Amino acid sequence: DSGVTQTPKHLITATGQRVTLRCSPRSGDLSVYWYQQSLDQGLQFLIQYYNGEERAKGNILERFSAQQFPDLHSELNLSSLELGDSALYFCASSGSGELFFGEGSRLTVL
Amino acid sequence: EDQVTQSPEALRLQEGESSSLNCSYTVSGLRGLFWYRQDPGKGPEFLFTLYSAGEEKEKERLKATLTKKESFLHITAPKPEDSATYLCAVQARWSYNQGGKLIFGQGTELSVKP
């Protein structure tokens, strides 16, 4: 158990819809990262927050947004969903150095 | 651009047959190189961090080494329970806009048969 909690574990929705994925980091970790993993792309960095502020941005689509709240939990919002957004979405947290990953949220867009 | 390439893509071993996985990287100033293990449908599990060329770390049947351009994950006398995808990632020297993100390779899928 990494100490990082993600909900929901599975999500099935239709194209055009909007979903929110939630992440609670390990106790004491200020940084939260979001990654997308699909079969053909591997683990792709989306965005990082540090203590409530956006710190680094990767290949995150404009339809996606994230935020980190004062209690340090984070949410990733995915809107106008397309079939190609189907993937595993991972949250990770770190204090310094290594990242610890949650079990992921599997999103299926039909 | 920071980049990580892992080889082979897949590796099939017999139980007890030792081998190595390769991770080649280019990064604008290495802060750390990381190895993770990932089981199907699960999150990556942290194994090792290496910080400088010549460094080695061991854990059970796994040993990770680092040079200036690549890292190796040596698996000695593997068991079926070592079957998983092994991911290599680099972290660039910290800058405000880089944060602490890891750039991952595509992974090596290891299968160990009894």
Describe this structure in words.
The complex is a heterodimer of chains A (110) and B (114). Chain A is an all-beta fold and 110 residues long. Chain A has strands at 5-7, 10-13, 19-24, 31-38, 42-50, 53-57, 64-68, 74-78, 87-94, 100-101, 105-109. In chain A, the strands form two sheets. In chain A, strands 2, 4, 5, 6, 9, 10 and 11 form a seven-stranded mixed beta sheet that branches. Chain A has a four-stranded antiparallel beta sheet with strand order 1-3-8-7, with no helix packed on it. Chain A is 0% helix and 55% strand. In chain A, a hairpin with a 5-residue loop joins strand 7 (64-68) and strand 8. Chain B is mostly beta strands. Chain B has strands at 3-7, 10-14, 19-26, 30-38, 45-50, 56-59, 62-66, 70-75, 84-92, 103-104, 108-113. The interface between A and B is medium-sized, with 26 and 25 residues.
Which structural class best describes the helix and strand composition of chain B?
Answer: mainly beta
The biggest sheet of chain A, with number of strands, parallel, antiparallel or mixed sense and barrel status, is: 7 strands, mixed
Helix fraction of chain B by DSSP (H/I, runs of at least 4):
under 10%
Number of strands of chain B: 11
* Beta-strand residue fraction of chain A: over 45%
On the 0 to 100 scale, the average pLDDT of chain A is 95
pLDDT averaged residue by residue of chain B: 94
Total beta strands of chain A: 11
Shape of chain B: globular
Largest interface chains and counts: A-B, 26 and 25 residues
Please work out how many helical segments of chain B DSSP would assign: 0
General form of chain A: globular
First-last Cα distance of chain A = 31 Å
Largest sheet of chain B: 6 strands, mixed
